[in-house]
Amino acid sequence: MSDLAASSYVRQDLVAERPAPVKTTGFLGFVRTRLLNSPTNILLTILGLLLVWYTVIPTVKFLLVDAVWSGKDRTACLAENVGRPVGACWPFIQAKFTQLFYGFYPEAERWRVNVTFALGTVLLLPLLIPRLPGKGLNAGLFFFAFPAVAFFLLHGGGITGFGVSWVAGLLQLFADSISGAGEGLVGLSKNSVAGPLLWAVGSAIVQVGTLLHWVIFPLTWLRDQMLGAGLGPWPDVLITAVVVSVGLFLLGGGARAGSRPLLVSLATFAGIAVVIKLMELDHGGLPIVDTRLWGGLLVTLVIAITGIVASLPIGIALALGRRSTIPLIRFFSITYIEFWRGVPLITVLFFATYMLPLFLPGNFTVDGLMRALIGVSLFTGAYQAENLRGGLAAVPRGQGEAASALGLSWWKTTSLIVLPQALRHVIPAIVNSFISLFKDTSLVSIVALFDLLGSLRASFADPVWTSPSTAFTGFAFIGIIYFIFCFGMSRYSLFVERRLNAHRRN
Amino acid sequence: MGVEARKPPLQFALKLRRALGGKAGWNGVAVQLVFGTILAWMAYEIISNARTNLETQHIAAGFGFLQNSASFDVNQTLIPYSGSDTYFRVFLVGVLNTLLVSVVGIFFATVIGFVVALCRLSPNWLVSRVGGLYVEAIRNLPLLFQILFWYLAVLAALPAPRQSISIFNTVFLNNRGVIVPSPLAQPGFVPFLVVLTLGIVASLALHSYARRALFAEGRAIRIWPYVLTLIIGLPLVTTLVFGMPITFEWPQLKGFNFAGGARIIPEFVALTVGLSTYTAAFIAEIVRAGILSVHKGQMEAGSSLGLSRGATLRLIVVPQAMRVIVPPLTNQYLNLTKNSSLAVAIGYPDLVSVFAGTSLSQTGQAIEIIAMTMGVYLLTSLITSAVMSIYGWRLNRSLGA
After folding, report:
1. What's the topology of domain A93-105+291-504?
2. Which carries the bigger pLDDT value, residue A391 or residue B184?
3. Helix (H, G, I), strand (E, B), or coil: what is residue A367?
4. Maximum distance among all alpha carbons in chain B?
5. For B24, which of A41, A325, A446 is closest by C-beta distance?
């Protein structure tokens, strides 16, 4: 047996312990695997460290360590007075703070801006939190009630009439324009080859205009009576409320559909009446603040929010138009979208500032902010249409077909089945276009409006604060503001996107 | 007696209805009529208002003003221009300046964008974080903000010419711009250029021949020695025969300013830096998304075939990524071109600045000038989208085949 034991090898001693494997967890492991695992990576790490050293450190030093925190004018921010290298000149921001936020909005009226911002925030926050209930009411308040209230808060002024008067005025303008066009044609017919034809067409159009004047006469008469009664807009509000509510009730299927639409409509008008009473719109409202006095963050937010709110209906109409099979409507939508998407926003703003006033009747003036708002809305509407087209394409065809099979009309199919689903899909895209609109509002400073960036540029011109670090301080400050807004919104958009795609995650 | 089959409806009437009113039929026709009437009415209102307003402002409509003398100076022109030239020449100067800044901006944006994308994809934690920081910071700040920052803060803070920051004594930075050596063409320039062009064309032909040989017969041809000879060797020989093609005039400080060299105006520098760094952040994200869109298995399949990492990237990953990258990349190039109109904010003489800005305020011909300006940008984007749809069509065809 010993023979066997000798031939087979049996290890007599323990194998020496091997060193522990290189750690791949913890801080050291992280440094080893992600920073220093190869010569190239070591080099890259060194380069990265150098980059950080030469950018981040000086920035922090400029903003905090070397900064001047108090002072009355430029002398506080000059290196020879301070006796050390001077970083950010924060007193400059303190001095220009109100200008950067409100522009030249009168100091006594600034509470109105604050109230508007507070109101907007209160309405917007619950809209952004998906878990909270009452999205329909909330969206209605934010997209319809808030813009109107904000207008009367920020701009001021009151109303003399309401629905009936506005409709009467609009129809009258329309009828006047038709009569004017007819008379123009008749005038042309005198020295033209196709004279008789032009004369006939022109006279026909004049007749149509006259007929329209007669048709709307009861409305204009009613308006004049109400204006003369001296009761302010109240009779008009009452008549509009009754007409609209009854109309909705009857169109909605009368008593068969229940009293809910009627109650909703009456509640809406009651709300409008409360707002009119509270803000005393019937007595001229708040003092008017000219938009030329607006500025800073106020203008930036007004343009961005109005742009996004106004561009949604334009975008929805164009997106539906682009999907339509009716040739003229599809052609118009495609042309509109491609045109506005093909030109830079600056040319659009130039168009709105210099060309739009030429297109409007001479007695019809639009102030600078309003022009920019129109331009921005037309422009953003085209982009919004493309976003919505993506959303509409994401709704399965079966949804629309099922609705048609149930006997719903095109309008009902679209507004009750397809659009709600499409809109849910495009929330991230809408937030993203809001971000780019928010950034693009800075362009209005080129057409002599003072938004956040424009106000900053204007404040550089102040000789009281000219110092080598003024420009850097100003850019740093408003850069932080822009960054907070845009970064926050982009994170929100990512959050919504993840939520919408939750079912696809594995 | 059986029931007779019903006759099919008249196809012609159906087709006509479909063509005139879409799916909605005659209702669609009615809708179109109403819509068309509203459009016509709006057009009439616009035209008649514009005519009245122009009459009250005493402005003659039409493009006749293009022949008038512009009588203002432009501080950077690619074609000869003086104050006595016409507005049409101003228009051309503006278009060329827009093109110049766009091309230069696109070049730098692409380079920076690809570098940042590679940084973000790097396995090195620090480098990928730095790349991410760059993208987030740049994308969340308005472009105009960045351009004004470069122009009003950084470039304005540079020293006066006498204290210029010099880079190897060839390039000088100061608050009046960047002074660079200016190239002067010598007699040998034309032959050099001709030979270089020929070399490039021959190399391209060689490349396509080698590809065809590879795909058709499986024959791998090594072409790089020939390409090297054609592109570097031949021009070198030409230089030896004809002399240097280009000499440089070096800038020198004389008194308070520089003599010699060429000055790049600070507006151009600020605009190019702003546009290219801004667009680069977007390009970086596009490139990153494109490379990540290629499935990991492709890389693994490449290495299991025995290809090296570089060859796998070059032959397998990049071609597939390019398919995803090219359309949005073109879109970014177009955006950069449109964004170059921000030049008007800092006074770089681009199309919007000299034509829709100065010329408009001098002549008051708002409709004509803005229509022409918008037309240029619209034409650019229409041509680009046409090219892109041809690209997409070819891609689909090649994938389908």
Report:
1. MetI-like fold (1.10.3720)
2. A391
3. coil
4. 115
5. A325
Q: How far is CA A286 from CA A145, A280, B7, in A?
A: 18, 8, 73
- Here the ipTM equals 0.85
The stretch B337-362 carries a mean pLDDT of: 89
Residue A150 DSSP one-character state: H
Residues of chain B in contact with residue A443, where contact means CB-CB under 8 angstroms, are: 144, 342
Q: Compute the C-alpha angle A375/A377/A378, nearest 5°.
A: 65
Burial-class residue A235 by CB neighbours within 10 Å (0-12, 13-18, 19+).
Answer: middle
Q: Is B177 exposed, middle or buried (0-12, 13-18, 19+ CB in 10 A)?
A: buried
Summarised one tens digit per residue, pLDDT across range B354-386 is 888 888 888 888 888 899 999 999 999 989 888
Predicted confidence band of residue A379 (pLDDT cuts 50, 70, 90): very high
| Residues on chain A touching B28 (C-beta within 8 angstroms) | 325-326
Taking an 8 Å cut-off on Cβ atoms, the answer to whether A357 and B381 are in contact is no
CB A308 within 8 A of CB A373: no
Closest CA to A396 of A418, A428, A420: A418
Q: Test B367 with A358 for CB contact under 8 angstroms.
A: yes
Q: How far is residue A372's CA from residue A307's CA, in Å, rounded to a whole number?
A: 10
A323, A348, A354: best mutation site toward chain B, by most B Cβ within 10 Å? A354
Q: Which CATH superfamily is domain B87-140+272-400 in?
A: MetI-like (1.10.3720.10)
Ranges of CATH 1.10.3720.10 domains, chain A: 93-105+291-504
Tens digits of residue pLDDT in A47-59:
989 988 998 888 8
- The SS3 assignment for A72 reads coil
Q: Quote the CA–CA distance of B214 and B361 in Å, as a whole number.
A: 62
**CA distance linking residue A475 with residue A471, whole number of Å:** 6
